[in-house]
Design a protein that fits this description.
It is built from one helix and eleven strands; from the N terminus they run αβββββββββββ. The protein is of the alpha+beta class. It has two domains: 1-41; 50-153, Jelly Rolls, CATH 2.60.120. The strands form three sheets. Strands 1-2-3-10-5-8 form a six-stranded antiparallel beta sheet, with no helix packed on it. Strands 7-6-9 form a three-stranded antiparallel beta sheet, with no helix packed on it. It has a two-stranded antiparallel sheet with strand order 4-11. The protein is globular. The N and C termini lie far apart (91 Å).
């Protein structure tokens, strides 16, 4: 009986010691995170979201920094953005709702909710909404220059 009691006390002590270590580790991690937040030098926009209305839908700028921009893009059913290309940025599109028909360098791909694609620099691309509900995507732009004048638009092909 004494051996059992001692074993119980030892295991209780071990559990208590592990809990204390875990608590100390958690406090240390929080302190490190606070230090990271205080020493961050990357400029991030704190402006409210800006939404631009287009004939095909909307573009809302969610966040932007020196070399990235995050947009929420909504494309109306049956609509598409123009075929375009960028010299100074790449894009990553993540489908949040609806269905996207992506045309990248002439190759068509269908993306559903939770799927994504990468659009490299210097690559003609466009996205269409072939569905009956709005297509909602998150777009992450990365590059040395993210200005609106880095868009080369291509003539639309006739549907006839």
């Amino acid at each position: 009986m004494l051996a059992r009691s001692t074993a119980f006390k030892n295991s209780f002590s071990t559990v208590k010691m592990l809990q204390d270590r875990e608590e100390d580790f958690g406090k240390q991690a929080m302190d490190n995170n606070q230090n990271d937040e205080q020493t961050s030098t990357l400029p991030v926009s704190s402006e409210p979201a800006t939404t631009r209305i287009r004939p095909w839908g909307t573009v809302t700028i969610l966040e932007h920094g020196e070399r990235y921009k995050i947009n929420r893009i909504e494309v109306k059913p049956g609509e598409h953005i123009s075929t375009q290309m960028h010299y100074h940025r790449s894009e990553h599109w993540i489908v949040v709702a609806g269905t996207a028909k992506v045309v990248c360098s002439g190759k068509e791909t269908i993306l559903m909710q939770k799927q994504s694609t990468y659009v490299p620099m210097n690559t003609p691309h466009r996205v269409e909404n072939p569905g009956v509900i709005p297509l909602v995507m998150i777009e992450v732009q990365n590059g040395e220059y993210l200005g609106e004048d880095d868009i080369t638009r291509f003539d639309e092909e006739s549907d006839d």
